[in-house]
Design brief:
The complex is a heterotrimer of chains A (525), B (429) and C (364).
Chain A: H1 2-13, H2 21-29, H3 32-44, H4 48-58, E1 62-66, E2 72-78, E3 81-84, E4 90-91, E5 99-100, H5 105-119, H6 125-136, H7 144-153, H8 160-173, H9 177-188, H10 193-202, H11 208-257, H12 265-283, H13 292-314, H14 323-345, E6 361-365, E7 368-371, H15 372-394, H16 396-406, H17 408-413, H18 418-440, H19 452-465, H20 470-491, H21 493-510
Antiparallel strand pairs in A: 1-2, 1-5, 2-3, 3-4, 6-7
Chain B: H1 2-26, E1 32-38, H2 46-65, E2 73-79, H3 85-97, E3 103-106, H4 110-123, E4 127-129, E5 142-144, H5 153-161, E6 170-176, H6 179-194, E7 202-207, H7 215-225, E8 231-236, H8 242-251, E9 261-263, E10 283-286, H9 295-310, H10 324-343, H11 348-355, E11 359-361, E12 367-370, E13 377-378, E14 382-386, E15 392-397, H12 424-428
Parallel strand pairs in B: 1-2, 1-3, 3-4, 4-5, 6-7, 6-8, 8-9, 9-10
Antiparallel strand pairs in B: 10-14, 11-12, 12-13, 14-15
Helix pairs in contact in B: 2-10, 3-4, 10-11
Chain C: H1 2-9, H2 12-35, H3 46-70, H4 79-98, H5 110-114, H6 130-154, H7 159-178, E1 190-191, E2 195-196, E3 199-200, H8 204-230, H9 232-242, H10 244-249, H11 254-280, E4 282-283, H12 290-303, H13 308-328, H14 333-347, H15 351-363
Antiparallel strand pairs in C: 1-4, 2-3
Classes of the chains: A mainly alpha (525), B alpha/beta (429), C mainly alpha (364).
Chain lengths: 525, 429, 364
C-alpha cells in the first residue's frame, strides 16, 4: 500500500504513457474486491486519465459495451458523447447496447478518498482546501505518508491546522507510543466529530498513559462539541420559529385583524407552494433556473392573493360577524381546494428543486451545518415581516385596515370604503400565506395535503401571541419554535409536540387574551 | 428515427382499434365479473394509493383486451375510503355484500388492512394486499403480495454489515411511530443482537405522523455516529415525512459514504418530490425497482407510460414512475386471473385453493410464486442506491426468490406458529 | 304531571312520528334483516345495518353537539375526542374479551405482545369487567370535559378561542394516542374484536341487537335533550347563548350552566363512541383528528342549529351523502361535500330544518 502511494506521488512528476486496460476492465466489470484492488492499481497508474476514469465511475458516467473478443469495452459517457476509458479516444457513434458500471458506497468512498489525497498536492489553494475538508471527516490510514508529505510542503495558514489534525488522527491509529500521545494531545484542541470517534476508540487502549491522555482529550473535545450542539439547537429553534411565523403571519391579518376564521389558510399556503412549482417548471432547462425563486416569490404572492380575494368576494363577505359559520364555510372551501389540486397535479408530491445556492449548508462549528435553505427562510421571514409592518404602518391601505379593524362604523363614516378594504386586507393575508408556501416548498414536500399540517399550528401561534397583535405573533412563533426544539432534543419529537400543545391550552386558560392583549374595557369581545 | 416512431404509433393505434372491435364480439353474451378497488383517493394516503388504483385499472384493461377472465369481462368497482379506517371497513362490506365482487384489491396501511380483515373473514371475501408490511399475520382471506420483513428489512441490514455495504457496526433505527416501524425495529434489534451488536450501539428514534422538521433528529444521528465505529441508519419513516427528512439530510451534508441511510418505505414515487443529487448512494431495499434491467420490466414500464399518457393521469403523464407496490398489485391481479382459470370458478374457496403455488413472471424479471401455504409471495430482494436522477442502481440482490416468513423467527413465541392460516373451525372454537 | 311533561316535549304529531321511528328501529328493521331470506328484495343486508347503526351513533353525537352549540352557543371543536374516549373505553373491554383467541394466544392484546410488553399497563385495570368499562365510557369523557371546562369557563374563554383550544386539545390527544408507548395500540388502535358480553360480534343477531340498542339510546337522548331544552335550565342556556353578560347580571352563575351542559354533552358523546366501536369494528386515533370534530359541527349546521331533529337530520344527510358519493363519484365527492358546506352556510343559516319550515310556512 505504501509503495503504491509513493508511486502515486511520483505520478505528478512524470506522466505515464497509457493506463492499464486490464485494471480498467476489472474496475468496470469485476467482483467487488477486484474492483477495489483495481482502484488502487489505477491510482498507482499515475496518470491524470486514471483520475478521470475513477471520478467517472464515482459520478455514474461509466458504461460498458460488448468488445471485439468477448471482453467488455469501457466507455465514459457524458450526455451524448462517449470516450474510451483506456485510450481516451472519442467513440462515435454512441453504441446502442450499453450497460452501466455501478459504483456502490464502498467504491465511491475509496475513490473520493484517493482523489482527495491526490488533490492535497495540487498547486491551487482552493483545491487543497477542498481536499483537507474532505479528509478531515475521516481518512484512510494508508494515506498517512501522503498527508505528511503534504504537511511538509504546506504553508497556507488556512489549510495547515486542518492538515495537522488529519495527520494526527491518522497517526492515532498506528505509530509509536510517543507519536500517538502527541497525536492525542493535538486532537484535544480540535472540535471535529471525527476526533471524538478516534478518541473514544483510544479510551479503551491497553496502554494506561494513552488511556489517560485520551480520556482527558475526549473531555475537552466533548466540551467544545457540546457548544456546537447547543448552537445547532438554537439555530433549529430560530428556524422552526421562522417557519411558524411565515405560516401564521397571513393568518395574523385575516384572523387576527379581520376576525375571519379561515380554515382554508393552509390551502392558500399550499397554492403558494404549487405556484412555486409551476414557475420552476417554466424555468427548467433554461440557464436562469437558479433564479426561478425571484419570479416565484411574486407569483406565489399574487396567486394566493387572487384566490383569497375571490374567496372573500364570493363567500366570506357574506359571513362577517358570524365567525363560527365562516369556519364551516372555509372548511368546505379547503376540501374543494385540496381536491382541485389532486385533480390538476395528481395526488402525489411534486418536485421542487432548490436553486444551487440554496442547497448544501455552511459549517459554522465542526459537525454543525446550517443549511442555506433554512438561513434563507429566516432572512425571508424577516423581510416579509418588515414589509408587512411597513405596509400596515406607512401606507394608506395600512391605515385603512387598522381603522376598519378598530372601528368599522366610524371608519365607514369618515369615508373609508370598508368593503374594498376588507377585500384588499384579505388578499394581503392570503398573499402572505402564498409566500409562506413558496418558502416551505424549499424544505418540505409539496402535495395537496401540505396546508393541513400547518393549520392547527398557525392558529396556535396567532392565539398564543394575542389576536390582533402582530408583535405577539412574532414572539409566539419564536417561543413555540424554541420550546419545541429544546423539548425535542430532550424528550423526543412526539412528546415535545404534545407538551407544547398542552402548554398553549393551559396558557390560554390562564390568559385568554394571549401573550399580548389589546387593552380595552369591553366585557364582551 | 421519427419515421419509426410514427410507424410504431400507427401499429399501436391499429392494434387498439382491433382490440376495441374484438372486445365487442368477445363479450357478446355480456358476461362480467366484478372486482373491488379499495384504495384511498383522498386524505393523507391518497399520495401513495391513487397510483395503485390506476395500476389495477391498467391491468384490468389489459386483461379485458385479451379476452377477460374465463370469457368474463372484468368490471372494476372503484370506491374511495378516504384514508378513513372505519370507512375502509364500511366500503369493504359494501363491495362484498352490495356489489358482490369476486376479489378486492386494496389497502396500503396496516391499520386499513386490520380494519377490513374482520369483514373479509366474516363474509369470506378475498383481499389482495400489495404493500410491504410488518408480518405477524396470516389470514385465509388475504393474499399478501408485498414483502414480509425477511424479504426486505433483514437482507438490507445484512448488506450494510457486509464489506460491500460498509461494514456498519452501529445502528440508528429511525421511524414514524406506528406499528410497521415498531415491529420491524423490534425484529431488527433481535436480529442485530443475534449478530453480536450491543444495545449501546443501537439507537431507536420515533417521530410523529406528518413530522416535517428533522433538524434535531439529524443532529442526533450525527452525534451518535461520531461516538465511534461505522454507523448506518435504517429508516422506516412513513411516506410523507420522507421529503423533509431527505432534504434536511442532503442540506446538512450527511453523505452516504459516511453514514448510509437505508429505507424501506422510500421508492421512486417518494423521491419524486426530492432533489436527489445530494442523496446519491443512500439506499433502499425493495423487491422491485423501476431501473431493473429485464425485458419484462422494460415492457411493463413502457406500458405504464403509455397508459398514463392515454388516461391523462396527473403527474404520471409527464413523468411516469413505477414502484414496488405497483408491481405487487400487478402480480396480484394476474395471479388471481390465473387462479380463477385454474379453478374454473369465481368461488372464493376454489380460487383460494387454486392460488397455492401459482407462479407469475413479474416485471422484476423474477418468477414469483405464491407459497403453497402461507399466502405470501416468494420474492427476490434488491438493494438499490439512489442515483442523481431519482432512480436506483441495484447494487445487490438475492440469488433467487426468498420465501416469506410472516411469523418472524426473531419474535419470541413465533416458532410455535403454523406457517399457514388457521382454519375457520379452529378459529371459531 | 306526567301528561304535562308529555305535551311539553312534543305535540301529538310529534309523538306519532316518534312512535313510527321506534317501530322502524325495533320491529321493521330486525324483521327485514333477520326473518326475511337474504335473496328477497326486502332483505336488509349487513351493510345497511352497520351503515345505519353508524349513522345513528353520529346522530347521537350531533345531538350532543347541538345541545352546547345550538342551545348554548359554545362551539366545541373537540367533541371527536370525547367520542373517541368513549370508544376506547369500550374498545379496551372488547380487546379483553378476545381472550386467548388472538394471533399470539396471550392474555395480553396482540399489539402489546409484539411490542414485547409483559403486563397490562395500569390504564387497563379491570377493563375485562363490562360494568367498569361502561363506567369509563361515561366517566372519562365526563371528567375530562368537567376539568377542562371548569378552567376554560372560569377564565371566560369563549367564542372562537374556546373552539381553538378544544381543537388543540383533541389534536394533542390524537398525538398522544398515536404513540405506541401510550398503550392503546398506536395508529392501529383496536380491531379484530371477537365478542361482546359473550356473544360473537360478527353474527347478524348481535349486530341487530347493537343496532337496536343504538336506536334506543338515540331516541332516549332525543327525548332527554328535548326535556332539557324545554325546561327552565334550557331556557337559561338559550339566554346564555344570546346574551351571556345580561344573564350573569341577573344573578345566574353562567359558569355552572355552561359547565353542566358541556360535561353532559361530553358524556353523551362518550356513550355514542362506545356504541360505535363494536359496530364498525375499529377504534383508532384518527377519530380524534381535528377534521373529524369540525365535521360534527358541520352535521349540526347542515341540519339546523338549535333544533334537535335538525341535528339528527344533518348527521344523516351528510354521512349518507358521504357514503353515497365515495362510492358513486370517488374522484369528485370532496367537491360535492365542500360545496354542500358552503351553500348551507351561505344560503341556509337555519339548516335543512329551517328550509323545510320556510317551505311549510309558504305552503300554509
Amino acid at each position: 500500500m505504501k509503495t503504491l502511494l509513493l508511486a502515486l506521488l511520483l505520478s505528478f512528476a512524470a506522466a505515464a504513457a497509457a493506463i492499464d486496460r486490464a485494471a480498467v476492465e476489472k474496475l468496470a466489470t469485476g467482483e467487488a474486491d477486484e474492483r477495489s484492488a483495481a482502484i488502487s492499481a489505477l491510482v498507482a497508474e499515475a496518470d491524470p486519465r486514471a483520475a478521470e476514469v475513477l471520478s467517472a465511475l464515482a459520478e455514474g458516467e461509466m458504461q460498458t459495451v460488448a468488445g471485439k473478443d468477448g471482453a467488455r469495452r469501457v466507455l465514459i459517457v457524458r450526455g451524448e458523447e462517449a470516450v474510451d476509458a483506456v485510450t481516451g479516444e472519442k467513440v462515435t457513434p454512441l453504441p446502442e447496447e450499453r450497460e452501466d458500471a455501478i459504483a456502490n458506497n464502498r467504491l465511491r468512498g475509496q475513490i473520493e478518498g484517493a482523489l482527495a489525497a491526490l488533490k492535497l498536492l495540487s498547486p491551487e489553494r482552493e483545491t487543497r482546501l477542498e481536499a483537507v475538508k474532505q479528509l478531515a471527516a475521516g481518512a484512510d490510514e494508508a494515506l498517512l505518508p501522503l498527508v505528511q508529505k503534504a504537511l511538509a510542503k504546506e504553508t497556507d495558514a488556512g489549510i495547515r491546522p486542518t492538515l495537522e489534525l488529519i495527520a494526527a488522527s491518522l497517526a492515532m491509529k498506528s505509530g509509536t507510543k510517543e507519536a500517538r500521545v502527541a497525536a492525542i494531545r493535538r486532537l484535544a484542541s480540535s472540535s471535529s466529530p471525527n476526533s471524538r470517534t478516534l478518541l473514544a476508540a483510544a479510551v479503551n487502549d491497553p496502554d494506561e498513559d494513552i488511556r489517560f491522555e485520551a480520556q482527558k482529550a475526549l473531555r475537552e473535545v466533548q466540551a467544545s462539541l457540546a457548544w456546537g450542539e447547543r448552537a445547532g439547537l438554537l439555530f433549529a429553534g430560530v428556524s422552526l420559529g421562522s417557519i411558524l411565523l411565515l405560516a401564521a403571519l397571513g393568518l395574523a391579518i385575516t384572523y387576527g385583524l379581520m376576525g375571519v376564521i379561515n380554515m382554508a389558510h393552509g390551502e392558500l399556503i399550499m397554492i403558494g407552494a404549487y405556484t412555486t412549482y409551476a414557475v420552476q417548471v417554466l424555468f427548467r432547462g433554461t440557464p436562469y433556473f437558479d433564479w426561478y425563486l425571484l419570479a416565484a416569490v411574486p407569483a406565489s404572492f399574487a396567486m394566493s392573493a387572487m384566490v383569497g380575494m375571490a374567496l372573500e368576494r364570493s363567500v366570506i363577505r357574506w359571513l362577517y360577524g358570524r365567525p363560527l359559520e365562516t369556519l364551516l364555510a372555509t372548511w368546505g372551501i379547503s376540501l374543494m381546494l385540496i381536491q382541485a389540486m389532486r385533480t390538476l397535479y395528481g395526488a402525489q408530491n411534486v418536485q421542487v428543486e432548490n436553486p444551487a445556492f440554496m442547497s448544501g449548508g455552511i459549517e459554522v462549528f465542526a459537525g454543525v451545518v446550517l443549511p442555506w435553505s433554512r438561513i434563507s427562510i429566516i432572512a425571508f421571514a424577516a423581510l416579509v415581516l418588515l414589509g408587512m409592518w411597513l405596509l400596515l404602518t406607512r401606507t394608506r391601505l395600512g391605515l385603512f385596515v387598522r381603522g376598519v379593524t378598530q372601528n368599522r362604523e366610524m371608519a365607514a363614516c369618515v369615508g373609508v370604503p370598508t368593503g374594498r378594504v376588507d377585500t384588499w386586507a384579505f388578499g394581503l393575508g392570503s398573499g402572505i400565506a402564498g409566500l409562506a408556501g413558496c418558502a416551505l416548498s424549499q424544505i418540505g414536500n409539496v402535495g395537496p395535503d401540505l396546508g393541513q399540517g400547518y393549520i392547527v399550528d398557525s392558529f396556535m401561534v396567532v392565539v398564543f401571541g394575542g389576536v390582533g397583535q402582530l408583535a405577539g405573533t412574532v414572539y409566539a412563533a419564536l417561543v413555540l419554535g424554541f420550546a419545541n426544539k429544546f423539548l425535542e432534543s430532550w424528550s423526543g419529537a412526539v412528546i415535545a409536540k404534545i407538551v407544547v400543545l398542552v402548554f398553549i391550552i393551559i396558557f390560554i386558560q390562564r390568559r385568554p387574551q394571549g401573550m399580548f392583549a389589546l387593552k380595552g374595557r369591553a366585557l364582551d369581545s | 428515427m421519427k419515421r419509426r416512431m410514427f410507424i410504431k404509433q400507427l401499429a399501436l393505434a391499429a392494434s387498439v382499434a382491433a382490440i376495441g372491435m374484438g372486445s365487442t364480439s368477445l363479450y357478446a353474451q355480456g358476461k362480467t365479473v366484478k372486482i373491488g378497488v379499495l384504495h384511498s383517493l383522498s386524505g393523507t394516503m391518497a399520495i401513495s394509493e391513487t397510483v395503485l388504483k390506476d395500476t389495477v385499472l391498467m391491468a384490468v384493461e389489459e386483461i379485458n383486451a385479451k379476452g377477460g377472465v374465463m370469457g368474463h369481462r372484468i368490471e372494476p368497482v372503484v370506491v374511495d375510503p378516504a384514508s378513513n379506517w372505519p370507512l375502509f371497513a364500511e366500503r369493504a362490506r359494501a363491495l362484498l355484500t352490495q356489489d358482490k365482487v369476486s376479489a378486492v384489491f386494496g389497502c396500503w396501511t396496516s391499520v386499513s388492512r386490520k380494519s377490513v380483515l374482520p369483514v373479509f373473514e366474516e363474509l369470506n371475501g378475498l383481499l389482495f394486499y400489495p404493500v410491504q408490511y410488518e408480518g405477524e399475520e396470516i389470514s385465509r382471506n388475504v393474499f399478501y403480495t408485498g414483502a414480509a420483513p425477511n424479504q426486505q428489512a433483514i437482507p438490507a441490514v445484512e448488506y450494510l454489515m457486509s464489506k460491500d455495504g460498509g461494514s456498519a457496526k452501529r445502528w440508528v433505527l429511525l421511524g414514524t411511530d406506528y406499528v410497521y416501524p415498531r415491529t420491524t425495529n423490534r425484529i431488527l434489534r433481535a436480529f442485530l443482537k443475534s449478530k453480536g451488536v450491543a444495545d449501546a450501539d443501537i439507537m431507536e428514534e420515533y417521530t410523529p405522523f406528518g413530522h416535517s422538521d428533522y433538524q434535531t433528529i439529524i443532529a442526533k444521528i450525527k452525534k451518535f455516529s461520531s461516538e465511534g465505529k461505522k454507523t448506518a441508519v435504517v429508516s422506516t419513516i412513513n411516506g410523507d415525512s420522507n421529503v423533509p427528512f431527505y432534504k434536511e439530510l442532503g442540506n446538512q451534508g450527511l453523505k452516504a459514504t459516511d453514514v448510509p441511510v437505508v429505507a424501506f418505505s422510500v421508492g421512486e414515487e417518494e423521491l419524486r418530490g426530492v432533489d436527489t443529487k445530494p442523496l446519491v448512494g443512500h439506499l433502499a431495499a425493495w423487491n422491485y425497482f423501476m431501473s431493473i434491467k429485464s425485458p419484462a420490466n422494460t415492457e411493463w414500464t413502457k406500458k405504464w407510460a403509455t397508459y398514463a399518457k392515454a388516461k391523462n393521469i396527473a403527474g404520471h403523464k409527464d413523468r411516469p414512475l413505477t414502484n414496488d407496490p405497483m408491481e405487487a398489485t400487478y402480480i396480484g391481479i394476474y395471479m388471481w386471473k390465473q387462479a380463477v382459470e385454474k379453478a374454473k370458478s369465481f368461488d372464493v374457496d376454489k380460487v383460494r385453493a387454486a392460488m397455492a403455488g401459482q407462479t407469475f413472471k413479474a416485471p422484476s424479471g423474477i418468477t414469483s410464486k405464491m407459497d403453497e401455504k402461507n399466502h405470501h409471495l416468494h420474492k427476490a430482494v434488491f438493494i438499490g442506491e439512489v442515483k442523481a436522477d431519482g432512480q436506483f442502481n441495484v447494487v445487490w440482490k438475492t440469488k433467487g426468490p426468498v420465501k416469506a416468513q410472516p411469523w418472524s423467527p426473531f419474535i419470541a413465541g413465533n416458532d410455535k406458529k403454523k406457517d399457514e392460516p388457521a382454519l375457520m373451525a379452529e378459529k371459531k372454537k | 304531571m306526567l301528561t304535562e311533561t308529555f305535551t311539553r316535549l312534543y305535540g301529538p304529531k310529534g309523538w306519532i312520528a316518534f312512535g313510527v321511528a321506534a317501530l322502524v328501529v325495533f320491529v321493521v328493521f330486525p324483521v327485514l334483516s333477520l326473518a326475511v331470506p337474504p335473496d328477497s328484495a326486502f332483505h336488509v343486508s349487513s351493510y345497511w345495518v352497520t351503515l345505519l347503526g353508524k349513522i345513528m351513533c353520529y346522530a347521537i353525537v350531533a345531538l350532543a353537539m347541538d345541545l352546547i352549540w345550538g342551545y348554548c352557543g359554545i362551539l366545541s371543536l373537540g367533541h371527536g375526542l370525547f367520542f373517541a374516549l368513549g370508544g376506547y373505553a369500550m374498545g379496551m373491554y372488547l380487546m379483553r374479551q378476545i381472550g386467548r383467541e388472538g394471533q399470539y394466544q396471550s392474555d395480553l392484546p396482540d399489539f402489546m405482545v409484539f411490542l414485547d410488553w409483559k403486563e397490562l399497563p395500569w390504564t387497563w385495570w379491570n377493563t375485562d369487567q363490562f360494568w367498569w368499562a361502561m363506567l369509563l365510557v361515561v366517566a372519562v369523557p365526563g371528567l375530562l370535559a368537567f376539568v377542562f371546562g371548569f378552567f376554560a369557563f372560569r377564565s371566560r374563554v369563549k367564542g372562537v378561542y374556546f373552539s381553538i383550544i378544544t381543537q388543540a386539545l383533541t389534536f394533542a390527544a390524537m398525538l398522544l394516542f398515536f404513540r405506541n408507548a401510550t398503550g392503546f395500540g398506536g395508529n392501529n388502535g383496536f380491531t379484530d374484536f371477537k365478542r361482546i358480553l359473550g356473544f360473537t360480534i360478527a353474527t347478524p343477531e348481535t349486530r341487530m341487537a347493537l343496532f337496536a340498542v343504538t336506536g334506543a339510546v338515540l331516541l332516549a337522548t332525543l327525548l332527554g335533550c328535548r326535556y332539557l331544552v324545554t325546561s327552565k335550565f334550557g331556557r337559561v342556556l338559550t339566554a346564555v347563548r344570546d346574551a351571556e353578560t345580561r344573564v350573569a347580571f341577573c344573578g345566574y352563575n353562567t359558569v355552572h350552566y355552561k359547565l353542566a351542559v358541556f360535561t353532559l354533552s361530553a358524556v353523551i358523546c362518550g356513550i355514542a363512541g362506545a356504541l360505535y366501536v363494536p359496530q364498525v369494528g375499529i377504534i383508532n386515533p384518527g377519530e380524534m383528528s381535528p377534521a373529524n370534530s369540525i365535521e360534527i359541527a358541520i352535521w349540526v349546521a347542515v341540519g339546523g342549529r338549535g333544533t334537535l331533529i335538525g341535528a339528527i337530520a344533518g348527521a344523516g344527510i351528510v354521512n349518507g351523502a358521504k357514503s353515497f358519493f365515495t362510492q358513486a363519484f370517488p374522484e369528485f365527492w370532496l367537491y360535492f361535500l365542500g360545496l354542500l358546506f358552503i351553500l348551507v352556510t351561505l344560503f341556509l343559516p337555519q339548516g335543512v330544518v329551517g328550509l323545510v319550515n320556510k317551505l311549510r310556512g309558504k305552503a300554509a
